[in-house]
Amino acid sequence: xxxxxxxxxxxxxxxxxxxxxxxxxxxxxxxxxxxxxxxxxxxxxxxxxxxxxxxxxxxxxxxxxxxxxxxxxxxxxxxxxxxxxxxxxxxxxxxxxxxxxxxxxxxxxxxxxxxxxxxxxxxxxxxxxxxxxxxxxxxxxxxxxxxxxxxxxxxxxxxxxxxxxxxxxxxxxxxxxxxxxxxxxxxxxxxxxxxxxxxxxxxxxxxxxxxxxxxxxxxxxxxxxxxxxxxxxxxxxxxxxxxxxxxxxxxxxxxxxxxxxxxxxxxxxxxxxxxxxxxxxxxxxxxxxxxxxxxxxxxxxxx
Length: 303
Prior knowledge:
Layout: E1 2-7, E2 13-20, E3 24-28, H1 39-45, E4 50-54, H2 75-89, E5 96-100, H3 102-113, E6 121-124, H4 141-155, H5 157-167, H6 171-178, H7 189-201, H8 204-216, E7 230-235, H9 243-252, E8 257-261, H10 268-271, H11 273-287, H12 289-292
Parallel strand pairs: 3-4, 3-5, 5-6, 6-7, 7-8
Antiparallel strand pairs: 1-2, 2-4
Helix pairs in contact: 1-11, 2-3, 4-8, 5-7
């Protein structure tokens, strides 16, 4: 396993970690999330592939000291940041980006902006654009988030302190379960805890700025002309991205395939990893066999 930092063209440091051997799979996280949700899937795939995990700017171990009023947290910026990480590692061969939640928009935008670098794509529990419009299937969600952002900007550090206190309290688990944000029968507390801890450390002004950037982004126009294999993973009880949204993505993209996780929630990566891993194996064998059989590319991050 290797890890380090790449530097984006604007000087922001981006944390990366790579392990395994073979063609590169690049995992793209959700907003407010680090690399921890991929642990079961990454462990399964690293026996045959080089597994790249990385943190968005303002997240995880990447640069956190960003101006909450001016920081560039657009989806397009994240897509270019992934390219910067691959450049840093010397990876010139096509990769398969796999995105969760906001990461779905990142991988689609990466395909738009860097088409030669993509062999195929996997989107999990996300949408192609304007994600807040389907959040809880409530058309008022974008307005509510904008209002919350204005309030948090005015309160500044006080909002961070309050949010940290709430996320670290035992009540946070009950809220997550009662709102069906995760499935209480499949989700283990130790798997969800890193998410709560990570979100508690974030500047909430940056977090909400990133959330609003998800709503501003749109890659729906890319789906009808997407000329790479696409696997869309959806869950029956996903409150963030409803199942109908994933079905619409597949309908608009010729040749795309859909996996529906019964009883799954937005956190299905840690709820049903065995089912996801089995379907990924089929996807690589049936749709990306030539790519999957390539030798491992040389990976040479500068010292």
